[in-house]
Amino acid sequence: MVQGFNSKMFYVAAISITGSPSNTFGADTGEVGDLSGALGVKLDAGSAQAPFYKVVSAGMKSEAAFRGQIASVADNNLTFDTLPDLLDPTYPSFPFVTGMFATTRARATAEVINGEVASISIDSNGSGYVKAPEIRIHPPDSGTDASVDAVDAIAVAEVNGSKVTVISVTNGGKGYSYAPRVEIEGGPHFLRLVEEDLNEGRFFLITSNSGNQVTLANPLNLDLGTILKPDALVEISPAWTLGSLFGYGPPSLKLKEGNETTADHVYLGESNSTDYQAFYHDGSAWRRKGALAVDASDSIIYPDEAFILAHHNAPAVNLVFEGVALTVNSFAYLPDFNDTFLMNNPFGADMMLSDLIAAENITTDLNDTDKWYAHSSDEEADNVEILHNRVWTTYWHDGTNKDVTEPAQATAKRGSGVAGSLTSKDISLASGSIAMMTNPYVGQNVVVTTPLPHGLRNGFLVSITGVMGRKTDSASPKNQVDENGTIAGPDSGLIIKSAANGSYEITNVSSYSFELKGKSGNSDYIVGTGNWSTGTGGLGYVSNAYALFVGGGGYGAKGIAMVSGSAVVGITLTDGGVGYLGAPKVIINSGGWRRVDAGSSPINDSLVPAGAGILLRRNHPNGTISRLRIGNPIK
User: What is the pTM of this model?
Assistant: First the structure.
């Protein structure tokens, strides 16, 4: 472990996500929309003798530089289709710039004279360039007319011997009162699978690329053809490095420079090791402790990797890292036997232990070397340590309900008990078929009729699936129409998926009917199609599970998920809690999680807060290095 600090005394950062998702695809950073946000990090005052430590994770550096489908896979090489050229659509264009995804990024600084960019000096030549990179000069900071007094500067690069050796200003622009930031294309990149399947979120470092092909690092010698299949959707994103995250030097440096003793430190995990290596900035470059002659500014920080900050100085420091929150599933590094891995909560949102390590990843079989090992003893089982409110808590799984193949789901509405407490009437995991559905005008609610009493109440969230209908217009009365909008005869309109499919709060409930709040119709219901549901009993349960209720403004509610015939058949509340003025989320947990120092009592589940420090400790005696699939809790 890291020398000079107690691993139980880390403090953790918090993350705040802003922005909105977009489906725009592009071929350059900034053209693909995702949930962006900022990671706020406060480092309290410390000293060389008593540093202040904090566990931090930065997530993805920025939005995807490319998103598209794989054309073919051969060994570790992925090929992509060419694209129509923007200037001449009849001419095929390569989607990538050769070599650009696996370079060491060059850096440069602009000089401004009389409001124009007069020259650009190269701070670092970079390496690995096959073609000249694009030079991006940030826009002018003054002026009002883009053609007169706020003109963007333009520059071009020359490459010799794989390095950027010359940057020439071809248009100095106008309106620059200070030197703008200069960005040079390049740097290390990761490829991540964003296709919705069991491998969604799997990522790989790109080691080289041509105009339409990338080669991936594959240290586990996986069969990539079974993970990254033709037509699968992937995205390519830039990687954080020590320099790009913390600054390459004053004045942009976010941590205090100095020598091995006085400078702030960043600890990164060593591959296949329990050790963490210290890095610090000496005023000219990032150095690895013990290897002072090497510039470590381009050391890569992996997307699932947390790191440790050690603040050796006073006063306190506030850091802000801008990045992207994942909206797809992810994978975490699962270390070898007797090793540890310090990871992050990858989603920028609260999650549960059962989200972090799902039942599908748990085994009690010593021959399953690539899964999370469960055992009745915490000393035998794999451990996960969660840092929250400056305290590390250790959990393990005892194997209960490890063979769940379909997790149970349930729905709750606002509490109807005293002080907003939940009662049995506020929970449902019922389902059934639909006998009839109305097709109302805008401003009226769809009415769903069921063939049997449904037992639901006002306020439940009901999912409607599989409903088909014959498309109608908005006339009064409505007419069935064909694909061209032309009126068709009765029962002759175009068959479509009904707009009623989805999840809705229900109102005006009777024994055999309910209304979908705020939902109008677009088609005449086809009898015999569709189902309604507030949950499912799941499959593979062998013993009673546990239920938690998160959100809704309340707290304290919990219950037992009663199991019969391998499925959950109902939830018995053991505590109704208080204050549920809105509908909480129901989380049904296997019940196998236990907490060290809590005796033999199982726990319902445990919250893993956004930004939490997570330490995976592998006790599986036959455990091998692998990847642990983590489902996104906000999908």
Answer: 0.66
